[in-house]
Amino acid sequence: SLEDVPAWVRPATEITTLSEVAPVVVHSDDLFGDSGLPALSLIGTSFSLRGNFVPFLSRHVGAPVANLAKDGGAFDGAAQAYFHSKEFSQEAPKLVLWEIPERMIQRP
């Protein structure tokens, strides 16, 4: 904690603007209701679960994004779980984005 550190040693205060983005919603009139299933899935660590990332991504690509990131699953936990799931084998998305922390890329 920096509570006991003199003010001149502390980092400068940062002020940011809070913004929230609602995810893209697709309305469908098809008979079985499956045309609205996300064609884009995101797998990764808890970093992908936080920070309103998926709604920003969804808005940018203009399509719904299924967030399949996993808390405490290391960098490959969500991938292992998703690629071996019934959902993936029955209806794989058109695109899978995999968030991998930078520290994992540097490992031997």
TrEMBL record:
A Pfam family: ALGX
Keywords: Alginate biosynthesis, Cell cycle, Cell division, Periplasm, Signal, Transferase
GO molecular function: transferase activity
UniProt keyword Cell division, yes or no: yes
GO BP, one annotated term: cell division
Pathway entry: Glycan biosynthesis; alginate biosynthesis
Locations listed in the record: Periplasm
Domain of life: Bacteria
InterPro entries assigned to the protein according to its UniProt record, in alphabetical order: ALGX/ALGJ_SGNH-like
UniProt GO cellular component terms: periplasmic space
Location, primary (coarse class): periplasm
Residue ranges annotated for the AlgX/AlgJ SGNH hydrolase-like domain, each copy included: 4-102
Entry protein name: Cell division protein FtsQ
Species for this entry: Undibacterium luofuense
